[in-house]
Design goal:
The complex is a heterodimer of chains A (605) and B (469). Chain A is mainly alpha-helical. Chain A has helices at 31-44, 74-86, 96-108, 114-122, 128-137, 140-154, 166-182, 187-195, 208-212, 220-236, 264-271, 343-353, 355-370, 393-405, 410-419, 452-463, 495-500, 517-525, 527-530, 541-548, 552-564, 570-581, 585-597, 600-603, and strands at 199-200, 277-283, 292-298, 304-305, 325-326, 469-471, 475-477. In chain A, helix 4 (114-122) crosses helix 21 (552-564), helix 13 crosses helix 14 (393-405) and helix 21 packs parallel to helix 23 (585-597). The radius of gyration of chain B is 22 Å and the shape is globular. The chains are: A mainly alpha (605), B alpha/beta (469).
Chain lengths: 605, 469
């Protein structure tokens, strides 16, 4: 049982013990997806949390009477058809204020400011919602928010438990992502560029797709496996990492009926597309010998050798009588690279041409906009169950076709979603008692907690006191949504809120939208929040409002607009006025905004 | 701090504290909302669990666990498994303890040396991974972080928190799992967020967010108006997640309102000095307070980073030096004072001390290279390692297992399993001591494959170190 021990290196002793699968590996970074799975289990179970209808956002009366929801596009046709079939009634369309806050948060990660809300409410144009959607899609904040989303997807981070990009690589990768989104690069092209990224990782952003997946405690095949597994999970929505240790048969029957028929050899065929590429470590600067960059290059030869017995995987060995190397082949079609075609180019070509690629993307984007994916978890597509697994199979296919048709245009597919009546439904369920079983129908908008960055930025915007955070190699940023990775934004500063609210680390802690005691304590008692509502704080909303008026009603209106992006209801306004009159005006006004920042409506959208 | 030669050694200066998204639900009191959902299904419903309990005997000798994590990986051959050689500094002044069974560097850790009778050294420890992040996560989640359930796995302390949930009472307002000065540790995995570590950065004044910065009177006014104005807190119209948050507000309020709660997080100058005047010392003061509080905290982690001595491991303390001396100067007085105080505090059971009821575990993520130092005057990463146990019924003054002359491989495993002792075995030991069935397989995991508290423990692959008792 004694083992020889190598210095400094690897050292995951294989099969030392009688484990049936001691290094079984499934998924790369899926905590958020798993949380979603749990959440979904709660959603579909009949629940005691039936809610009293009509209490939310009392200021936003339904704009359309029930039953006359316009079918704007196929999203409405598909969703309302299924509701009709099953006798589920959708709620009414959200009022303008609710719509504006939601669409601004979803598309840009920010809440609208008071002036924007007022202008939108006063706008009488019949197409003002569509115009607003187009305005937001064209905004710079859109680029920030979707760069954050894509950064999560590819896990762009300076250091992780496997690869290390350093902040320099992280920054150029961030720039690549942001430029791609700003310039409306088609999503499929963006992914192909990543998969084939080559060059100096400190100057070529997309080369860091490879660097991020380097597994430094195992043989090079572990890195190939990471690359195939990551791309399979994030771009094809499937838990391919399972197959990196064992075939599906006997393992995945309960997990994925499609993958149960696939073998580890099939997976090796995917990983072999990466086996003619090398990432050569290079000293970045003689003055900083510990900072290494990588030169990622395709070589004329190389192969996925089936010859390992250490590292993070079960031993790799040829099947009896089989080749000692794995041959590159796209496991879902068996397709092989064309003559002379660089292997990673071939992989990107096949992967992005796969309908599942588009299907995976629209499912992810749907979740960003609607709060729950059509397939959950996002990385658990079962290709044998495409007609039963999605909560609305027809809609998923129509979205997929639309995304392909529009040339993988991110803005285009988000616009299609945002203009639909389904997206614009109220959070208030008016047809009857709400049941969580109705959530998969999207019979009302599903409120979910703001992201960590979205929340901190919302606090800053509502109070008009920006956060300032220093980012290595980038200087100061004034919004959390601009952070290039979740290791920036120090805990000693406003970053503490980002940690409390579950931004994750793009490694072994995925983003979550859980709630906690820490979050409640932070919102009530952290000076990051409490100083921002003070009149004495320079440029704060409070200082401006109190300088402009002493009328309690006006103060209430302005604080509601700035904080909750709506006007108070008549009842709320009366309560607020009475409250403001019950003590020193400035003190009570600060208290009122504190209370609004702590309303559930501020946290959930 | 010296420049490290190891590319894996630091996570960047900007690496933030993480994993403190603690949350917990006080199910006996859902104040004021009228909304009571089936929140405790995850704990109370036996259908979610199937435990392979046949033949499993649990020690159940401890009520609490203090988990002291020495991140960066201390050199085992200079400390818990001392190997004296030409390299050994004379001021280590090794001495013989426990009837000749233990040699220990009294000069390096004088306070710890006075407690050898309470300590059990496990010398046949073997890590799986000699890479910091992997090894650290492995030790805290009891499995390969890259393995099948690695990505959904909760921290050991989160499991303890969950398992202790059902026994909580109304006065148990403190979180079940509290992590002190422990940045970037694993959290609750797929378990509900209420079991995640409640992260605390220690300060003599306690936890700043337990009190309202603008004063208690103003807070009460704000709190009351919030609950008057926020209709969604009464209607639940924003759904279950929002009502979870509402409940966390109530629990936060309970923490704020419970007199003296912040005393457990606070400490005096005298204690600060007694525990060595360091952040780590402060965390052990608070750990002592928390396990002694009997307010619901069952698992406390304290972390001391900085043991990654690739170079200059024996450098004498001086400005900018990080060596075994400087690390020990933080560890030793704190650890010694903790053992002294726990042993001097009555436990909840008659005749028992708080130490009797608290399992104290000390370990890093792996060990360091043995024999003479490397050409940088340091020691590099190495799988062989030692662990230290105290309290919770563990019999001290003993060394389990024996390594060869250099401390590289085990020549005697020191326990019935006759193999190296793995992080998974340490976890089985903690669970058994706390009365938690380490062979439990939860069936509520999102993968639908069954979540084992310790992978393969149900098959007998990993075991508690019974010989500690």
């Amino acid at each position: 049982m004694k083992r020889s021990i190598a210095l400094l290196t690897l050292a995951l002793a294989p099969s030392l013990l009688a484990d049936p699968c001691p290094f079984a590996v499934d998924l790369i970074s899926p905590r958020s997806a798993y949380h979603t799975a749990s959440a979904n289990a709660e959603l579909v179970a009949p629940s005691a949390t039936a809610t009293a209808p009509g209490r939310r956002r009392p200021g936003t009366a339904p704009a359309n009477p029930q039953g006359s929801l316009p079918r704007v596009n196929f999203i409405d046709t598909d969703l309302f058809a299924k509701m009709d079939t099953d006798g589920v009634k959708p709620t009414a369309i959200a009022g303008d204020a609710e719509f504006l806050r939601r669409v601004t948060l979803d598309l840009t990660g920010q809440i609208p400011d008071a002036a924007t809300v007022t202008a939108f409410l006063n706008d009488t144009a019949s197409d003002k919602r569509t115009k607003k959607i187009d305005e937001l899609l064209a905004s710079d904040a859109f680029n920030d928010r979707w760069t954050m989303w894509f950064g999560d997807l590819v896990q762009n981070v300076q250091v992780s438990s496997s690869g290390r990009e350093y902040y320099i690589g992280r920054n150029v990768y961030y720039t690549f992502i942001r430029d791609s989104i700003r310039n409306a690069k088609p999503y499929d092209q963006m992914v192909r560029e990543l998969l084939a990224g080559k060059g100096d990782s400190f100057s070529v952003g997309q080369a860091n797709y490879w660097v991020r997946q380097i597994q430094n405690n195992g043989p090079i095949q572990d890195t190939y496996d990471n690359l195939a597994a990551h791309s399979g999970e994030k771009f094809l929505g499937q838990p391919l990492l399972c197959l990196s240790c064992h075939s599906g048969l006997g393992h995945l029957e309960l997990v994925n009926t499609y993958l149960k028929s696939k073998t580890r050899s099939d997976f090796w065929g995917m990983a072999a597309f990466f086996a003619t590429t090398r990432a050569r470590p290079m000293q970045a600067d003689p003055a900083t010998p510990n900072i290494r960059k990588f030169d990622v290059q395709d070589l004329p030869n190389g192969a996925y050798q089936l010859n390992t017995d250490a590292g993070n995987k079960t031993p790799r060995a040829p099947v009896p009588g089989g080749s000692s190397v794995a041959t590159a082949a796209y496991m879902f079609t068996g397709e092989k690279p064309r003559a002379g075609e660089p292997l990673r180019d071939a992989y990107g070509r096949m992967l992005t041409a796969d309908r599942q690629f588009a299907r995976t993307a629209v499912n992810q984007l749907w979740k960003e906009m609607f709060g729950v994916g059509l397939v959950e978890p996002l990385n658990a597509f079962d290709l044998s169950k495409l007609t039963t697994q999605p909560s609305n199979p027809a809609l998923l296919e129509d979205l997929t076709s639309e995304f392909i048709r529009n040339g993988y245009n991110l803005r285009g597919i988000l616009r299609t979603m945002a203009v639909s009546s389904a997206y614009q439904l109220s959070s208030v369920y008016t047809p009857g008692p709400w049941s969580e079983t109705l959530t998969p129908y999207f019979a009302r908008h599903y409120p979910h907690r703001l992201t960590a960055e979205g929340l901190l930025d919302a606090v800053a915007k509502a109070t008009n006191v920006p956060v300032t955070m220093n980012v290595q190699g980038m200087g100061t940023v004034t919004r959390a949504m601009l952070l290039p990775d979740p290791l920036e934004g120090r805990r000693s500063g406003p970053g503490v809120l980002l940690d409390e609210f579950g931004r994750g680390d793009r490694d072994d802690s995925a983003r979550t939208n859980d709630t906690s005691i820490s979050q409640a304590l932070a919102l009530m008692n952290n000076t990051i929040v409490t100083t921002r509502v003070k009149r004495a704080t320079t440029n704060s909303t409070m200082s401006k409002v109190l300088a402009s008026t002493t009328d309690p009603g006006t103060i209430a209106d302005q604080l509601y607009l700035a904080t909750l992006s709506r006007k108070p209801t008549a009842d709320e306004r009366t309560q607020a006025i009475n409250y403001l009159k019950s003590g020193t005006l400035a003190t009570k006004a600060e208290d009122l905004q504190f209370v609004l920042l702590n309303q559930l409506e501020f946290l959930f959208d | 701090m010296k420049t490290k030669t190891c590319n894996d050694c630091t996570r960047g200066s900007g690496f933030p504290l993480r994993g403190d998204g603690f949350s917990r639900r006080r199910f006996l009191q859902v104040a004021g909302t009228g909304i009571v959902a089936s929140y405790f299904a995850d704990v109370l419903s036996p259908s979610l669990l199937r435990a392979a309990t046949a033949g499993v005997t649990l020690r159940n000798t401890a009520k609490n666990c203090i988990f002291i994590f020495l991140a960066g990986a201390p050199s085992h051959v200079d400390t818990w498994d001392l190997k004296e050689g030409s390299w050994t500094p004379s001021d280590f002044t090794p001495d013989t303890y426990a009837g000749g069974n233990i040699r220990f560097p009294r000069g390096l850790m004088p306070q710890t040396a006075t407690h050898i009778d309470k300590l059990a050294f496990v010398r046949s420890g073997l890590a799986w991974a000699a890479v910091h992040q992997l090894g650290q996560a492995w030790a805290q989640i009891a499995r390969n972080p890259g393995g099948a359930t690695g990505a959904i796995a909760p921290h050991i302390g989160a499991v303890v928190s969950l398992e202790s949930q059902a026994a909580r009472t109304v006065s148990d307002v403190l979180p079940g799992f509290i992590a002190l000065n422990s940045p970037a540790i694993p959290t609750s995995g797929y378990l509900p967020a209420k079991y995640a570590p409640f992260g605390v950065t220690t300060a003599s004044t306690g936890l700043a967010t337990l009190s309202h910065p603008d004063g208690a009177t103003r807070f009460t006014d704000r709190w009351n108006f919030l609950h008057q104005l926020d209709a969604n807190r009464h209607s639940g119209a924003l759904g279950k997640a929002s009502m979870d948050m509402n409940d966390f507000y109530d629990q936060s309020k309970a923490l704020m309102d419970t007199p003296g709660i912040n005393n457990f997080f606070s400490f005096t100058d005298a204690d600060h000095a007694k525990y060595g005047s360091s952040d780590f010392g402060d965390s052990l003061i608070v750990a002592r307070n928390l396990v002694g509080s009997r307010r619901g905290t069952r698992f406390v982690q304290a972390t001391l980073n900085g043991w990654d001595h690739h170079d200059g491991i024996y450098d004498k303390p001086a400005n900018g030096v990080n060596s075994l001396y400087t690390q020990s100067a933080m560890f030793d007085p704190a650890f010694g004072a903790l053992l002294t105080d726990l042993a001097a505090t009555p436990g909840s059971a008659s005749g028992k001390t708080l130490l009797d009821e608290t399992l104290v575990v000390v370990l890093g993520e792996f060990g360091r290279t043995t024999g003479a130092l490397n050409n940088q005057g340091g020691r590099d990463h190495y799988l062989r390692m030692s662990m230290v146990f105290a309290g919770g019924g563990v019999r001290g003054g003993r060394a389990l297992g024996k390594t060869d002359a250099n401390g590289a491989s085990a020549v005697d495993y020191g326990w019935s399993q006759e193999r190296d002792i793995r992080p998974e075995d340490v976890t089985c030991t903690i669970y058994s001591a706390l009365g938690i069935d380490y062979t439990t397989v939860r069936t509520d995991d999102p993968l639908g494959r069954g979540f084992e508290y310790v992978p393969f423990a149900k098959d007998g692959t990993y075991k508690p170190i019974e010989e500690l008792w």
